[in-house]
Fold Transcription factor MafG.
Amino acid sequence: MSPLFLVCSEEQGSCGMTTTNKGNKALKVKREPGENGTSLTDEELVTMSVRELNQHLRGLSKEEILQLKQRRRTLKNRGYAASCRVKRVTQKEELEKQKAQLQKEVDKLANENASMRVELDALRSKYEALQTFARTVARSPTVGVGVRAGGGGGGAGGGVASSVIGPLIPGKVATATSVITIVKSKTDARS
């Protein structure tokens, strides 16, 4: 920011305010000697109240007043723009932090989801295997044979022996029937 100075010349008997802006153009505001003989920096020009500014502007021409007010407005707008930039940068940084945090959470949930899918696939495979086994058992007959020793319960084959033949393949049904016949004939022979 360029400062605003009050320049007084005793030889000529007048005072003036000058400021330099980017183009090195000097803004001169003439004042009579003894009238508000203080210099104003850009910071003072921006921070002073309107009432204080009006006191400093007394005795100046309309053009000079407009120039100073325009300078003040320009400086204030510059300050507002700077604070907006700072606010925007701060908000951007905060949003980037939130984005990083949310990305971590998304990654964590994606990993959990992947492990749950693996577990679900394993359970689904087990379920399908059990379903297949259940269908096979339901389609093929199972054989349960109880063998009882005749007479008083003594002898080598005493007690109850049960045997279950597992799932049978449809082409092997004759074999299962043969097993039943063999078991029956042995039991009849003992009796």
Remarks:
- The radius of gyration is 52 Å.
- The longest helix spans residues 62-139.
